[in-house]
What we know:
Layout: E1 2-6, E2 11-18, E3 21-31, E4 36-47, E5 50-59, E6 64-72, E7 78-86, E8 94-96, E9 100-104, E10 109-115, E11 120-129, E12 133-141, E13 144-151, E14 156-161, E15 167-172, E16 181-187, E17 198-205, E18 210-216, E19 231-233
Antiparallel strand pairs: 1-2, 2-3, 4-5, 5-6, 6-7, 8-9, 9-10, 10-11, 12-13, 13-14, 14-15, 16-17, 17-18, 18-19
Amino acid sequence: MDAFGHTTSGRIKFRRVVNARVEVSKTSPGTVTWRPISWALVSSNGSPGTETTRQLVAATDGKVRLVETEWHSGSALDVRVLKVVGRGYPSRLVSVTDRHLFWVAADGSLHRKTWNGSRFGRPMTLPVSLRTATAMTGFEADFGRRIYYTDKAGALHVVADHGHGSTDTVLRSSGYGKVTGLRAGYCMSPNYARQRSYLGLWSVNRASGVARFQRALRPAADEAGPVTKAVRVRPSGWTWRRLG
């Protein structure tokens, strides 16, 4: 599983974890003045020991940036902002995928825009309310779009984005009261053959840096499947306090 984060010193950090082993860990030599909260891979070009990506990145300053990252074996992570592609979004309740941007407005309504390769357009308001949401993350696959979020009561939800027919399902009714950051992403083996890929869900308490990992079962089903029992991961084992 790949993840980008923001360290307490203001640097951008990248980690690639395979099973329980960190295979790649890179940190930018300099700091950034903006604080990223959501990353989405747009394109990638790599070979053994090197990789260049383009990412859509939503930050706490309300801007969405198109960012290029590059790393090589034995070198640091290079991070370059190519351009700002969106402004005026929330500082926290916003999530970007490779094709869409989701955010919660001041009235609690959930909104979506579509990325066309150069800008966001086709705005839509989904018929669900996230008025009490505390953290959210979007995920997109061939089967459709899902938005996972936690609320002030400590529950974990998933929104199945079907446009005007969108639904909101409670996956767990308690246990997420201290969560302030969420990530959803596919987990798979490097050769895509040793193990069938599955959807992993990280829930993070930024104050402590402690994360929990779970599998989201049957994410493509009309009736969302449950999540597995959470595995606690200490800050030294995976995350950093300012992840997202």
